[in-house]
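Sequence decides. Consider this:

===
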Amino acid sequence: MGRKWNNIKEKKASKDANTSRIYAKFGREIYVAAKQGEPNPETNQALRVVLERAKTYSVPKTIIDRAIEKAKGGSEENFDELRYEGFGPSGSMVIVDALTNNVNRTASDVRAAFGKNGGNMGVSGSVAYMFDATAVFGLEGKTADEVLELLMEADIDVRDVLEEEESVIVYAEPDQFHAVQEALKNAGVTEFTVAELTMLAQNDVTLSADDQAQFEKMIDALEDLEDVQQVYHNVDLSE
């Protein structure tokens, strides 16, 4: 799973370079989560997940509060949650998650981002079966053995616990997100380097230098779209 974690780090590093874009995307995601349930993270699990992710991206409290207050205020703005699947150079696979108030615009924009950069849209299900929904946590200050032991003591099953570079990475089932989070916090973990509900490819692929350059251009084009929240793929970008 090491290469998959490197892909997450690569994506996070790329997004961190444009904080205004990231803050806007989180503002929309927080608003949608708060509007769909109670605007209180103590009772709204979806909102809790988004807020935990927002912490790892250093999203300012003012943006978080503004989005939640907007939901509390009964705003009539509604967003559809959409998932697109497609292919990049050399058959590489991509999943795009979006929140949009204009489905036709978003579909057109996503299709163009694929098509102009050596890719093409696929039908629903053409790619997703090669990915696994996964909860991923990154933390520092503990060893993998220590983390595994404390999770076992809490009677929590996880897929894997690995040491990668200076972090310990925990891979778990999506429905274990809150259980893992609470167990780690109870063990003294106050900050996470990553706390994500993500889609991890079952197998990563390596592209030629030319194909990788084109692939990265396509991913940048997709992530630049206002309506796109997350982009997942199966390309090893660790080199």
Summary: DSSP finds eight helices and eight strands in the chain. Residues 23 and 58 are 9 Å apart (CA to CA). The mean pLDDT is 89. Strands lie at 80-87, 93-100, 120-121, 131-139, 160-164, 167-172, 194-201, 228-233.
